[in-house]
Design goal:
about 300 residues; alpha+beta; Type Iii Antifreeze Protein Isoform Hplc 12; 6-stranded antiparallel β-sheet; 10 strands; about 20% helix
Amino acid sequence: MLEWCHLSNRLGRSILKRSNRLILLIGVFLAIVAFIGIVLLLSQPTTPGNGGTTEVTEANVVIAAVNIPIGTIVTADMVRDEKVPLAEAHALRVQAASLAIGQTARQDIFAGQQILTTHFTSSGTAADISVPPGKRAFGLQVDQITGVGTLIKPGDYVDVVIGLTSSSFPVVTVNPDDQSITVVAGLNGTSVKLLLQNLQVIATLLPPAPAPAQGAPAADPGTALTGQQELVIVAATAAQVEVLKFIQMDANVSLVLRSTADYQERDPVTDEVILPVDDITTGVVLRTLIDTYGVITPQLVEFIVPTAAP
């Protein structure tokens, strides 16, 4: 009986050892199968929809369907979405036509060209300018007060308004006997007139931003009246250039910014912008403010100054 118990124990241990070996072998086998499966999965080319990461080979770009001249507000029929090889996509490209629609072109954009974010911005520098045929480029220096906060950009349209003071535009009388001229003192000789209209801006130049002092806080990004100046270059006819030069020398000149939306209609034959009709203005002197706008003139008041009793 004792011998039978020993025999049973040895048989049980033998069976247990064989079971452990079998489980170990099965585990090793499953690990090998899993490893081979992972290798095969990683070696397969990934495509959209199989759960892997797709290798990017194309990029979204926006192409100009037609020529878009400077100052034009981009509409849906002027642009189209395309995909191009990644190597052909510009780093500054606009990636969706919807992002270009409604923007104002700040330089000429040609049909078939990739549209860039820089087409809609002005850096305040101009390495080159394009003068329209038959026009001349003329520069006017303005500041934040006379130049709409120095926010005028290429493609905008401006009017020119001038102010003449009594020093350059005095009130005079002429002696009928000898035609001698006498300046009348004590009168306001200021005169203001909207002189030229519908001049297109073809370039602007801004001074470089000053470097912040070491340890100084960052500059406020909001608008500040710093006296900053801007050179605005407009396209003008020969006659307009003469007028601009005269007032540049002898008048206070301001530029008035026009709405870009007023310059979107084009001639179907020449494709040139149809300019709005010039407004007729009368100009303003002191008499105009009194007669037309009701400015009250000073009144002479007489009164007796009391004196001390003797």
